[in-house]
UniProtKB/TrEMBL annotation:
InterPro entries, per database record: SKP1/BTB/POZ_sf
Protein name: BTB domain-containing protein
Amino acid sequence: MSPCESPPSKPDLLPPSVVERHPDLSFDDGNLVLLTQTRYFVVHQGFLCRHSPVLKDVVETLESSSSLLRLEGLPVVKVQDTSEDMLYFLIALYDGLPEMPFAAESFGIASALLRLSTKYQVHRLRQQLLSELSAAWPSTLSSWDAREEAMLSPNGAYEPRKYTPHPILVINLARSVNAPELLSSAFYDLSRSSISSTAAGYIASETMECHQLAEEDLFHLLKGREDASRFLSTFLAVRLGGRKPSPNCIYTQAGDHPRRSYCQAAFENIFYDMLRDANSLLCYRSCDPLFAIINAEMIHERDDGGILLRPCEYCRAEFRMEVEAARNDFWHSLPEWFGDIQCIGVGLRSDCGKTVVWYIQH
């Protein structure tokens, strides 16, 4: 070294006693340290940079830094994520996404993985997670119907919270990671709860933490709930109230048949049964227009011990087509009803190094 050259600056050394080395996810041949507040992970720089352009930019920034932290002689990337979340993330990168049902008990892991895969722009992992979550929070009506059928217990009881996380958690997660495809079904699911319980928020039993909607989302929820209720009222009034038999009705085609008004009377019974159900105290089902509309088609199959009136096959087929069309119109209206749902991504804020990009949610 020339006498005129300044001696190289010595990198800052971080004593290992300050934080704990993770016992499982630290590799002997690792060449990079990911440092959380309580633990650090010895990982492979090339592997992480291949999967995450954000971490790649951070590492390149660190290499040109004059104040590089080192631990066990390795360069350190400090992150703001918890050690538990980072552990889930690294396991998913190294071993693949674990096989787990995206139910209430595993939602914490799923949400951590989705947040970090979004934050570090690991697109393959993010898309895989969204695909799995979409099974419970679908964007199509057919998938929603399949999801609702899966919410039935063996004895036929409807128990959505037993099988899926609370929709407030899903809405807040979808907003934070720019996943609008989850929002329509989550908003609709939540709209079936009472207004008071929704406004009060959801208290997680494990942490006793209260999760609430943002004020704007609460407004969108109440508006969407009102629009959905109006749609159902219109359907009842227009498609059932005073409904006439089909032109091909078996009984009207028979002239002065004793059952000439049979189908009309059957639809009137359906109309009044639905009004009675709408005024019941049944949880979820009484505030579920999609279920109520299809139930209007099936209600004549229910035998409550009284005289059961069934429309003829022609009248039923005509009404079935109207039910299918109404439910499709209802489903496609959900994004507009619940606030013209969209999230506009313009980047991602990273808490590592000096990388500064971010997401904006609308």
